[in-house]
């Protein structure tokens, strides 16, 4: 099956490359947009175009987008995944770094849903086949606490809670320098980076994004922050901290200093989902679950403290 879409190019995208405009307007990645152009599935004012051609305001952009084949779940026990809580409605896990939440095109590594399948957990069948039961996601490079729905009613209630921002999501991040003020709110729209398909950036017209932060510890080279997310955009904390000029330690993709990362022994961004709180979908009682720092983050923080 294919999805055929037709839109008029707005003033704000005038002069952009065809693949960039397609990605921005249709919500696909830039690499996917380039593939569609290369396959002759994109027309501007009725004519086939090259991906590097520029679009003009008022032009008619048409695209036929074939549906991607579903990605299969591979049952596989993943070392390091911890079960924090398990009941009939949900399972709360401690996700290690290097594990994706669900399969996706281009990812062949371990996944949370694959681990749960291999471990005999029966989770909700709601959602796409490769991410059934998934009501939230953490980046592959981010560790910490997350919840997966087991029953259909829990999936519906939890999905709605995340959508309406009634879930308390708390992260800790070690960032370079010292944010000024020590406590504040970052409200800046986020969209896919216009030049790098694998990145996101603060961009006018992007999706509304809000991050609250508070400094827990201030050290010579870095600060430990507690962050609360109102919204849940991809790479939100990493993008917002880079925009504040205080990127996460160990995050070269978003401006982190590789020399400092090497000094503290980090091979990924210092970012951890420490706490998750919500109304339990069965009892309605407020519950809260926590995850301690994994060894690599705890070690890096100790090194930073020792450099004062």
UniProtKB/TrEMBL annotation:
**Free-text function comment from the UniProt entry:** Responsible for synthesis of pseudouridine from uracil.
Q: What is this protein called?
A: Pseudouridine synthase
What range(s) does the RNA-binding S4 domain occupy?
Answer: 16-72
Q: Which family does it belong to?
A: Belongs to the pseudouridine synthase RluA family.
User: What are its E.C. numbers?
Assistant: 5.4.99.-
**Cross-referenced InterPro entries, in alphabetical order?**
PsdUridine_synth_cat_dom_sf (IPR020103), PsdUridine_synth_RluA-like_CS (IPR006224), PsdUridine_synth_RluC/D (IPR006225), PsdUridine_synth_RsuA/RluA (IPR006145), RluA_PseudoU_synthase (IPR050188), S4_RNA-bd (IPR002942), S4_RNA-bd_sf (IPR036986)
Record's catalysed reaction(s): a uridine in RNA = a pseudouridine in RNA
Q: Which CDD domains does the record match to this protein? A: PseudoU_synth_RluA_like, S4
Record keywords, A-Z = Isomerase, RNA-binding
Instruction: State the organism named in the record.
Output: Nocardioides marmoribigeumensis
What's the domain of life for this entry? Answer: Bacteria
Q: Which GO terms describe its molecular function?
A: 23S rRNA pseudouridine(1911/1915/1917) synthase activity
Q: What SMART domains does this protein map onto?
A: S4 (SM00363)
């Amino acid at each position: 099956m294919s999805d055929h879409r037709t839109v008029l190019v707005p003033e704000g995208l005038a002069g952009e490359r065809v693949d960039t405009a397609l990605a921005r307007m249709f919500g696909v990645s830039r690499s996917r947009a380039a593939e569609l152009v290369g396959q002759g599935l994109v027309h501007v004012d009725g004519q086939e175009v090259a991906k590097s051609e520029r679009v003009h305001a008022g032009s008619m952009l048409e695209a036929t987008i074939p549906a991607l084949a579903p990605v299969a779940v591979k049952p596989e026990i993943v070392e390091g995944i911890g079960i924090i809580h398990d009941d009939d409605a949900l399972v709360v896990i401690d996700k290690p770094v290097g594990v994706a939440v669900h399969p996706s095109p281009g990812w062949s590594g371990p996944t949370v849903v694959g681990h749960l399948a291999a471990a005999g957990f029966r989770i909700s069948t709601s959602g796409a086949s490769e991410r059934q039961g998934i009501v939230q996601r953490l980046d592959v490079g981010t560790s910490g606490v997350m919840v997966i729905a087991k029953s259909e009613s829990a999936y519906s209630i939890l999905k709605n809670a995340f959508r309406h921002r009634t879930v308390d999501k708390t992260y800790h991040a070690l960032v370079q320098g010292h944010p000024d003020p020590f406590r504040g709110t970052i409200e800046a729209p986020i969209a896919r980076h216009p030049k790098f398909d694998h990145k996101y950036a603060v961009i006018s017209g992007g999706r509304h994004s809000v991050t609250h932060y508070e400094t827990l510890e201030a050290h010579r080279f870095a600060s430990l922050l507690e962050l609360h997310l109102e919204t849940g955009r991809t790479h939100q904390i990493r993008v917002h901290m880079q925009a504040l000029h205080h990127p996460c330690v160990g995050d070269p993709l978003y401006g982190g200093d590789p020399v400092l990362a090497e000094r503290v022994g980090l091979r990924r961004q210092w970012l951890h989902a420490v706490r998750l709180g919500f109304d339990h979908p069965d009892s309605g009682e407020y519950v809260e679950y926590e995850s301690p720092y994994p060894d690599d983050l705890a070690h890096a923080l100790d090194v930073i403290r020792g450099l004062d």
